[in-house]
C-alpha cells in the first residue's frame, strides 16, 4: 500500500479537497476560521498550504461566521457546504448556537472546533473546562445534542472513518445536518502514514429515494378521495429542486399550494395556485383553504407550529395529513399517512398514477382578496406617520428585481415578509425561521452572496438583531461580497413587546423606552455601519428609502440603509392563533383576561384529534 506521511490536520484538508458533488464542485469549497491555540498551529498550517485552491476566510465571530457558512449551504440547496474551524473553549462554544441553527433547519455545515490535548499532558490548558467526575468531558460536548454527527478525534487514524462518515451526513438528504469534528489540538499536529487512496477524488451523488409502492398507492387513494386537498410546501421542495415538478403537479391535479417560511419561493408568487403563506403568519387565502382542507399534503415540511397555527389552522374534522418527506422522522409525525421519498420523485410518481385526476377548483376570489390586503399593507403611506414594516417591505419589493434574494431571520419582519413578500424565483426568499436566530441576518446575507454572486442580496433586519450581531458586515467588505442591508429601527424588540402586551403583560424590558435605563440608548446605526466600512445612510421616509435602494443597487461595497419604523403596526389580514402560554394566576386583570382568551383559543387546538 502506498502511503503518504502527513499531519492529521493536513490529511483532513487534503481529504476535503478531493470530495466533489455530481456537478463537479467541491462539496466543501473552503473554510471559515478564527484561530486560537486550539487550531492555529496545525490546522492553520495545513490551511495555509492549500490557500490557493481551498480558501480560508477570516470572520469576526464564531457564531456568525458559521451563520454565513450555513446560509451558503441553504442558498446552494444543500449541494455544497462550508467548513468552520475555531479555537478551543470560548471560540468553540460561541459556535454552538450556529450548530443548533443548522440542526433545526436540516442544513449541512462541517464544524471543526479545536479541543483539549488528547494526551492530557499539559492539563488544564488555557480555556479547558474541567469536569470533576468525568475526564472525557470538554466544552465541545455542548455540540453533541445539536450535531447530527459528533465525533472527537483523539487519534489521527480515526479520520479514516470519521471523514467519510462526515461527508455522508452532509450530503445525504435524509440525514443532512451539522457535523462536528472536535479535533484535539495535539492530534491535529501528529503525523501518520495515510494510504494514498484515501485522498483519491470521490463523487457524492444526491440520493433521491423513490416511494415504496404500497405507500404510493395509499397516497394516491387519499388524493383521489380528497375534495379539498392542499399542498403545504416546505424547504424540502427547494432542496430537492422540485419547483418545476410542484408546478406541473399543482396545475395538472388542480391542487392549491401554501408555503411555509422555508418553502416560500417554491412556486412563483404570481401563480394562481400559489395561495402564499400558511399558518400563524398565513395569508387569508391559504388559511381559508387550510381550514376546509380534507387532505393536507405536507411536502418537505417539518410542520413547525408557525405552519400549523399550533395545530389550529386545519379545522376540518375529517382532515387527514399526507406527509411526503425524505426523512422518515418527519413523515411519521402527527399520525400522518407517510410517504418517505424525495419531493421531486414523489410528485412525479404520484402524478403518473393519478392520471387525469383533478380536484374541484378553488375560488379565485380568495387570492384576489388577499392580494388586495397585500397592496393595502405595502403601498407607500401618505402623511408623516412612521412607516410600518409592511411599508418598508413594499419599498424593497418595488426596488428589487426577480433575481433578488431577501434575507431575514427574526423580529417582526419574518411574519410580515412571509405574508407580504412576493418571490417569483426559487430561493428568492431566504429565512432562518427554524431557529429564528437574532444575528443570523447580516452574516447570512454574506453567505448567500458567496453562494449566488450573480443575484442581488438584500438583508432586512431590526435594530435589535443588528445590535446583536453585525460584525460580518466588515467581512463582507473585506471579501468584496456586496450586500444591501435595510435596518428597521423601531427602538427595541418590537415583536416581543407586542407579544408581551397580547399576553396581558405590561410593556417591560423590550422597547428601549420601557427597559431600565439611566440614559436611553440613541444609536446612530448609519454611523456605526460606516465605521465598519460600509456605505451607509439614514432615510426619513419611504420615498427616500426607494431612492437609497436604487443607489444601493449600483454600489460596489455593502450598503446599509436605516429607517425609523413604528413598533406597534403589523399586518392584521390573514394570520392564525399561536400558542404562547399565558400565566394561570396573576394579580393583574390584563393577564387574567388574556388567560381566559387563551383557554378559549386553546380549546380549538386539535379540537377533533
Ligand atoms: C438570539 C435570539 N435571542 C432572542 C430571541 C427572541 N426574540 C425574537 S425577536 C426579538 C426582538 C428582535 O428585535 P428587532 O430585531 O429589533 O426586531 P423587532 O421585533 O423590533 O421587529 C427577540 C428578543 C431570538 N429570536 N434570538
Ligand atoms: Mg426593533
Strand arrangement within the widest β-sheet reads 4-3-5-6-8-7
Q: Which molecules other than protein and nucleic acid are bound?
A: thiamine diphosphate, magnesium ion
Q: How many strands, what sense, and barrel or not for the largest sheet?
A: 6 strands, parallel
* Rg over CA atoms: 25 Å
- Overall structural class, as computed from helix and strand content, comes to alpha/beta
Report the total helices: 24
- Report how far the terminal alpha carbons are from each other: 62 Å
Shape from CA axes? globular
Number of strands: 22
Weakly predicted, low-confidence segments: none
Helical content band: 25-40%
Measured by DSSP, the beta-strand proportion falls in 15-25%
- Global mean pLDDT: 97
GO molecular function: 3D-(3,5/4)-trihydroxycyclohexane-1,2-dione hydrolase activity
Family: Belongs to the TPP enzyme family.
Keywords: Hydrolase, Thiamine pyrophosphate
EC number: 3.7.1.22
Describe the structure in brief.
With 609 residues, this protein is of the alpha/beta class. 36% of the residues lie in helices and 17% in strands.
Amino acid at each position: 500500500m502506498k502511503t503518504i506521511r502527513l499531519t492529521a490536520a493536513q490529511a483532513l484538508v487534503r481529504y476535503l479537497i478531493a470530495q466533489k458533488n455530481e456537478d463537479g464542485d467541491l462539496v466543501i469549497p473552503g473554510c471559515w476560521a478564527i484561530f486560537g491555540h486550539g487550531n492555529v498551529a496545525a490546522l492553520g498550517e495545513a490551511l495555509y498550504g492549500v490557500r490557493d485552491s481551498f480558501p480560508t476566510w477570516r470572520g469576526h465571530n464564531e457564531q456568525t461566521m458559521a451563520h454565513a457558512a450555513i446560509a451558503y449551504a441553504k442558498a446552494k440547496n444543500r449541494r455544497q457546504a462550508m467548513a468552520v474551524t475555531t479555537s478551543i473553549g470560548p471560540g468553540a462554544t460561541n459556535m454552538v448556537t450556529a450548530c443548533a441553527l443548522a440542526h433545526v433547519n436540516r442544513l449541512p455545515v462541517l464544524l471543526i472546533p479545536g479541543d483539549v490535548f488528547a494526551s492530557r499532558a499539559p492539563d488544564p490548558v488555557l480555556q479547558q473546562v474541567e469536569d470533576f467526575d468525568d475526564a472525557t468531558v470538554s466544552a465541545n460536548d455542548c455540540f453533541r445534542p445539536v450535531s447530527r454527527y459528533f465525533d472527537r478525534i483523539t487519534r489521527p487514524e480515526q479520520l479514516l472513518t470519521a471523514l467519510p462518515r462526515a461527508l455522508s451526513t452532509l450530503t445525504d438528504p435524509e440525514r443532512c445536518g451539522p457535523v462536528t469534528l472536535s479535533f484535539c489540538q495535539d492530534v491535529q499536529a501528529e503525523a501518520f502514514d495515510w494510504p494514498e487512496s484515501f485522498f483519491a477524488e470521490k463523487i457524492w451523488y444526491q440520493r433521491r429515494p423513490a416511494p415504496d409502492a404500497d405507500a404510493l398507492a395509499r397516497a394516491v387513494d387519499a388524493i383521489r378521495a380528497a375534495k379539498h386537498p392542499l399542498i403545504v410546501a416546505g424547504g424540502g421542495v427547494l432542496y430537492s429542486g422540485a419547483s418545476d415538478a410542484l408546478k406541473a403537479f399543482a396545475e395538472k391535479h388542480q391542487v392549491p399550494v401554501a408555503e411555509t417560511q422555508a418553502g416560500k419561493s417554491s412556486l412563483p408568487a404570481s401563480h394562481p395556485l400559489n395561495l402564499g403563506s400558511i399558518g400563524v403568519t398565513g395569508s387569508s387565502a391559504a388559511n381559508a383553504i387550510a381550514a376546509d382542507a380534507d387532505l393536507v399534503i405536507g411536502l418537505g415540511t417539518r410542520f413547525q407550529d408557525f405552519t400549523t397555527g399550533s395545530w389550529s389552522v386545519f379545522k376540518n374534522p375529517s382532515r387527514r395529513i399526507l406527509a411526503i418527506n425524505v426523512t422518515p422522522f418527519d413523515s411519521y409525525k402527527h399520525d400522518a399517512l407517510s410517504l418517505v421519498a424525495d419531493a421531486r420523485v414523489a410528485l412525479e410518481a404520484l402524478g403518473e398514477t393519478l392520471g387525469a385526476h383533478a380536484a374541484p377548483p378553488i375560488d379565485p376570489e380568495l387570492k384576489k382578496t388577499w392580494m388586495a390586503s397585500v397592496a393595502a399593507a405595502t403601498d407607500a403611506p401618505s402623511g408623516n406617520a412612521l412607516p410600518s414594516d409592511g411599508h418598508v417591505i413594499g419599498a424593497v419589493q418595488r426596488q428589487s428585481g426577480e433575481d433578488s434574494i431577501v434575507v431575514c431571520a427574526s423580529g417582526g419582519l419574518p411574519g410580515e415578509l412571509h405574508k407580504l413578500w412576493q418571490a417569483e424565483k426559487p430561493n428568492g426568499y431566504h429565512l432562518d425561521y427554524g431557529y429564528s436566530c437574532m444575528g443570523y441576518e447580516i452574516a447570512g446575507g454574506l453567505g448567500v452572496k458567496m453562494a449566488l454572486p450573480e443575484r442581488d442580496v438584500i438583508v432586512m433586519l431590526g435594530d435589535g438583531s443588528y445590535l446583536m450581531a453585525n460584525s460580518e458586515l466588515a467581512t463582507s467588505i473585506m471579501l468584496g461580497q456586496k450586500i444591501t442591508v435595510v435596518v428597521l429601527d423601531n427602538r427595541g424588540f418590537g415583536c416581543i413587546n407586542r407579544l408581551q402586551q397580547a399576553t396581558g403583560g405590561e410593556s417591560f424590558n423590550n422597547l428601549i423606552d420601557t427597559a431600565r435605563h439611566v440614559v436611553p440608548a440613541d444609536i446612530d446605526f448609519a454611523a456605526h455601519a460606516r465605521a465598519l466600512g460600509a456605505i451607509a445612510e439614514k432615510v426619513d421616509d419611504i420615498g427616500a428609502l426607494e431612492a437609497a435602494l436604487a443607489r444601493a443597487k449600483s454600489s460596489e461595497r455593502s450598503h446599509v440603509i436605516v429607517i425609523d419604523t413604528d413598533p406597534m403596526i403589523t399586518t392584521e389580514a390573514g394570520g392564525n392563533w399561536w400558542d404562547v402560554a399565558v400565566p394561570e394566576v396573576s394579580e393583574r386583570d390584563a393577564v387574567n383576561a388574556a388567560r381566559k382568551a387563551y383557554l378559549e383559543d386553546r380549546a380549538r387546538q386539535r379540537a377533533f384529534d
